[in-house]
Design brief:
Elements: H1 4-10, E1 17-21, H2 39-49, E2 53-56, H3 61-65, E3 74-78, E4 80-82, E5 95-97, H4 101-107, E6 112-119, H5 124-144, E7 148-154, H6 158-161, H7 170-182, E8 187-190, H8 200-205, E9 211-214, H9 221-233, E10 238-241, H10 243-246, H11 251-264, H12 268-276
Parallel strand pairs: 1-2, 1-10, 2-3, 3-6, 6-7, 7-8, 8-9, 9-10
Antiparallel strand pairs: 4-5
Helix pairs in contact: 2-11, 9-11, 9-12, 11-12
Length: 277
């Protein structure tokens, strides 16, 4: 079955997408709940700001999908749960896919599903579990016409800074992105590289599949707007940002500012007016 109908719901007519990720509560970390304690309010604000998509867990997706009308953002549904983000890692790590994942995604009318492909230092078992998750999900997605977004995530050692930190080394990101493509990803959700001017190499290694860039930890308005603009100039097809939106004092304004960069090629300076308005 073709994935095109759902891709057409996820991506705007210009072929670009801004997906606001608010699935952080799925991972059981207190720090991830900042700004999303009241999910009804968060989703209400985001729907009014009108991004292309909102990324949610199965437990929170009904808050979006029960809103009447045709104009709400598309649903990107998180399909896996992991325990790798804490400041102190537990004795046993895991990354597990949901039971009957496509049945749940179809019932919730998702436009896309997303899973991780972790590369953690000295944790090959987690990488293997992620590969198993993707291999189990891919044929189901093909059967039911569901786009599969894979999130190749290279992380620094937990002991370095006491918790989850992105590793932006391009020589680590490139092979993991390509592996996700080889496993059947329809969309890549990848971290920015340390040197943003090299991000075209990530686009290239994705072999024609759209690349949406992760936002990572919260940074200043000027930094996130400039980085987003530069990444779009490198060939990214969009962004998947969470904390830089939902933890902002003006999440609706930040959403509109980022939409202007993604879809209208607005400069960071021009986009900033949406936040200050």
């Amino acid at each position: 079955m073709s994935i095109t109908p759902r891709l057409n719901r996820l991506f705007a007519p210009d072929g670009k997408c801004f997906d606001v990720a608010v699935d952080h509560g799925f991972f059981g970390e207190r720090a991830f709940l900042s700004g999303i304690e009241d999910m009804r309010q968060v989703i209400d604000i985001l729907v009014k700001a009108d991004p292309d998509a909102i990324q949610l867990s199965v437990g929170q997706a009904p808050l979006l999908q029960h809103i009447p009308g045709k104009g709400k953002p598309a649903l990107v549904l998180r399909m896996d749960i992991a325990n790798v983000y804490g400041t102190e890692l537990p004795r046993t790590l895991y990354s597990r896919i949901l039971h009957e994942p496509l049945e749940q995604a179809l019932a919730l009318d998702a436009a896309c599903v997303v899973v991780n492909l972790f590369n953690l230092p000295n944790q090959p078992e987690i990488w293997e579990q992620c590969v198993q998750n993707i291999m189990a999900l891919k044929p189901l997605c093909e059967r039911w016409g569901m786009p599969l977004m894979v999130e190749p995530l290279v992380m620094q050692a937990n002991t370095g800074k006491g918790g989850y930190m992105v590793d932006g080394a391009i020589d680590k990101i490139l092979p993991l992105v390509r592996q996700a493509i080889e496993l059947g990803a329809d969309i890549i959700k990848a971290d920015p590289t340390d040197d943003v001017s090299q991000y075209h190499r990530v686009i290239e290694v994705a072999a024609g599949k759209p690349v949406l860039v992760r936002g990572g930890g919260k940074v200043s308005d000027s930094e996130i707007l400039r980085r987003t603009y530069d990444l779009m100039q490198q060939g990214a097809r969009g962004i998947v940002y969470g904390r830089n939106v939902v933890q902002h004092d003006n999440p609706a304004g930040m959403t509109r500012a980022l939409m202007a960069i993604v879809h209208d090629n607005a400069t960071p300076e021009a986009a900033l007016r949406y936040i200050k308005a």
